[in-house]
Amino acid sequence: xxxxxxxxxxxxxxxxxxxxxxxxxxxxxxxxxxxxxxxxxxxxxxxxxxxxxxxxxxxxxxxxxxxxxxxxxxxxxxxxxxxxxxxxxxxxxxxxxxxxxxxxxxxxxxxxxxxxxxxxxxxxxxxxxxxxxxxxxxxxxxxxxxxxxxxxxxxxxxxxxxxxxxxxxxxxxxxxxxxxxxxxxxxxxxxxxxxxxxxxxxxxxxxxxxxxxxxxxxxxxxxxxxxxxxxxxxxxxxxxxxxxxxxxxxxxxxxxxxxxxxxxxxxxxxxxxxxxxxxxxxxxxxxxxxxxxxxxxxxxxxxxxxxxxxxxxxxxxxxxxxxxxxxxxxxxxxxxxxxxxxxxxxxxxxxxxxxxxxxxxxxxxxxxxxxxx
Length: 373
Prior knowledge:
The chain is about 65% helix and about 15% strand. It has a 5-stranded mixed β-sheet. Strands 1-2 form a two-stranded antiparallel ribbon. Strands 3-5 form a two-stranded antiparallel sheet. The protein has 8 helices and 9 strands. The chain is elongated. It is of the alpha+beta class.
């Protein structure tokens, strides 16, 4: 039976039932004994233990030999390196053999020797450099003291110049202020004188004169109020001038509107005064004559630089336009003659256009770009 066989042998076994006429009549067992296998395994364990012991003994001996001939010299070399790295360049590694380790120790000693010699040379050079630096430092200290004396002299001179400039700025502001006040007085005289005049033509002439004086007074007022005494923010100036003109002619600004398209333009007095007078004449003409047949309209002022850095100023309206056949160059109008003469003063070119209203274009050089070129 299976139980009997298992007790007798350590076996590998398989079994299968025996069936006849669809009835199980018993079981058949086939087995193989493993006793020999276990015996071989036991022998192999003993052999492995013996070989492992032999390898251990051999490795121990080998490590001792390596330590004796290789590790010990290298350890000694490491100790020497540590002492050298601490600053003691007199240390040398002992040469105990003629093999690669001995060659390495000898090469190491030669390298340390070279470093020691180089350090000695560097010490000599350093001492020489220190002496030179001390000499140079002494020279620089003398030069610095000289510069300090010169700087004190320059600072005193600059302070004197600064105070002088401040006095001149104050004086120049006071001049602009007085010029503005005097022009205001002249404008007021025009105003009070006009109160005694009943002739419409004469009254119109007085008012034109008053507006011209006022346009110049505004220039000096802007300069007096500005920190920059050389240049005027022309956009702001145009805004104040047109507001004054609209008020002077009693214009209803809900009907006649103004568009200020002046870019960021800075003008000196020599350009600002003629440009202001030209704007005064052209805007006054638009307000007086341009909208007699219209209740509403727009007056525009455009100003900026073209591709050649020339200044372009354009004053236009959508009023009735210039009279047919009018020769601007030969006109008896004082205002038009002023515009032509002032454009010549600016070394510029003035053009008149009659297209859905009046448009006047003035082109002249910007002095800033002219000086730069």
